[in-house]
Amino acid sequence: MLWYVLLLTLQVHLMSGSPVSPDPDREMVLAFVVNRHGERTPDADELSLSDQQEKLKNLTHIEGLEALTNTGKQRSFRLGEFIKQRYGIEGYGLLSSIYRQDEIALRSTDKNRTQMTALMAMAALYPPKVEQQWGEGLGKIWQPVPYTAVPLSQDYLRYYSNCKRFKELMAMAKEESVHQEFVQFRDLVTIVKKETGRNFTEDPLLFETLFDLFRSQVSLGLDIPEWAKPLLPKLGEAARLAYRLYFRYDEMKRLGGGVILNDFVKAASDIVAGKQVQKRFRMYSAHDFNIGALMEVTKVLRHEQSLPEYGALFGLEMYRSKCTGEFTVLPIYLAKAGESTAQNLHFTGCEANSHCDWSRFQNNTKEYLLSEREFYNICNIRTEL
User: How far does Cα 93 stand from its chain's mean position?
Assistant: First the structure.
């Protein structure tokens, strides 16, 4: 058994450390990446569905609810290693080997788990070189990197919890889905109501809540309930459909991913115009709904609409051809930092090649562009912006 564990560990290490082989003709000039935080403890809603509440409370009394676990910290560090390998000097060279404030912008939602994920990722990305070492011990291995976070009530990354219009649309989506795609889960609803005391017909999003509870439990070393084991395939399908409710209407997609898309298009347009653009690598330490929303507004083709795992990352990368000067945009997806390699995806309208012509990308996505100020107006959020 030990040899198997060691072999698995080696395979994961090799997979997470696979070198990048850049295309010699293509120079990366811009990258926006959105990641999901690492493994976390359950949140209050998930805990209410558990039959192991006391065990979970005992296991999480130090970190608290919805907080990054030690496994989550490791996952976040692996995320930083991936960023270093792909975007650092050994990869596409978008980032220097030392922290430079004009190269990177880091934003996190105002949640402990996403902030800690950002910090752990940066620790892996920027182990300090001699010129940035600030002391003995810790000063030789850790370089502090700043990030931006705004109150949850004003953050466009938290559109699903602070935007009144989005909540109205979600209520419509739930009502429709209960009478459509969730009809197939009537038998499952009866079982989970008996086991949890909650009526999932009233709120199909509870399927995703329950699925996330099981993920959290497993990451903490607890098994899932016996009653749930034979139902996992069905629960997983119901959770996937619940996740899709966040993107049911085009307006929901625009509210969820339009601001990041708008910022990407603005930066990319400036680069195409020959303007000086700083902070060409921008990272958003956020949530699964942020990954999904950006994939939706960029019209990414995916064969499998699965729930983003802890440590998942979606990236928009812009390249310039050294031969022709042509600009292209490439979508990439990392399913789980440390356990998978990045995959090139395709945009709708650019099925023949992962690299999509910049003009075509711009034209295909313009309907979803949303300025930050417009987001606040639509969502009726008061801000000083």
Answer: 23
